[in-house]
Amino acid sequence: ILNVEQSPQSLHVQEGDSTNFTCSFPSSNFYALHWYRWETAKSPEALFVMTLNGDEKKKGRISATLNTKEGYSYLYIKGSQPEDSATYLCAAIIQGAQKLVFGQGTRLTINP
Amino acid sequence: DAGITQSPRHKVTETGTPVTLRCHQTENHRYMYWYRQDPGHGLRLIHYSYGVKDTDKGEVSDGYSVSRSKTEDFLLTLESATSSQTSVYFCAISGGYHYEQYFGPGTRLTVT
Hints:
heterodimer, A: mainly beta, 5-stranded antiparallel beta sheet, B: 112 residues, mainly beta, 7-stranded mixed beta sheet, 4-stranded antiparallel beta sheet, 0% helix
C-alpha cells in the first residue's frame, strides 16, 4: 500500500514570514504528485500537479518542488498572509493506478 | 468551478438504517471518487469508479457499497449505518489529467 507522509502536522507562522513543509512518498513506480489547499468548511482545491523529477511549479506566493528519485516534495509559501491559513494536502499516485493516496495534511495557521 | 454537487448536504440518521448519498456531475468526467474525512486521517478513499458500472474499492470500503448507472451520478450506500460512519463525505471527479481531482461541497453525516 502506498504510504504518503506529511510533516509537520501543524504549523503556526507569523504574518509576513515564509514557510515550507514536506511530503514524502515511495519513489518506486511514481506517476504524479498533487498538492491541494483545503480551507476550513470548504472543499479541497488543487494547487499543483507534478510529474517530472526536478519539476518546480509556482502560483503567486506559493511554489512547490519535486524530487522523484528520493521521494519528496516541498511546498513553499513566501510572505505568509492570513488568507494562507488552511490545511495543505499532498497526494501521490503510482504507475498503473487510478486513485490518489493522500497524506494526513499540514495545518497552517498564520498569526497576524 | 467544476460542476459537481452532493446531496443531501447534511443528514442525521439512526444506527442500523440504510443511507444513500448522491454525487452528481455535469462535466462528463470519467472518474468519480468517494472519500471520508476524519480527524487525524486526512482524506481516505472509500470507493471509486472508472466508468459506468465500473467500480473498485478504496482503503476503507467495509460497510459501504457504490453504484454508477450513468456517467453523471455516483451513489454511495451505507447498508446499515454505524456510529463509526459519522463523518464528512466528499465526492471528487477527475477528467484524467494525471487524475487531478475536483471536489464536491461535502455531506456531513451523523449516525446516532
